[in-house]
Design a protein that fits this description.
mainly beta; 11 strands; Thrombin, subunit H; 110 residues; four-stranded antiparallel beta sheet; globular
Length: 110
Amino acid sequence: MQLNVSGKRIFGNGISFEGEYPALEAVLINERVIVTFDWMAFERDLPAQNLFCYDRSGNLLWRAPDIGMGIVDAYTGVTSEEPLWVANFAGFNCRIDEASGQVLETHFTK
């Protein structure tokens, strides 16, 4: 379920909290809030690692690792909620374990 974002604020469906960075997208999946933060807010010479997961109160549960693609490695948005797949700027679709944030598999899409 898509939530609303405005700057750092994530809200909707009884959820309201501030994230660490400006948010591009927030999705509620099985009581977890998956947030894709704006990769432009992260250090330019490193992978962004901009996919975070929170509980409904805004407590951080995990932060997804990069996929080893260097400075073009940044998540761009959820492409499927169940199972959780997230697009990556490097041209990959990444299956993410929603419980741990670990990358389970990647598929090159470009």
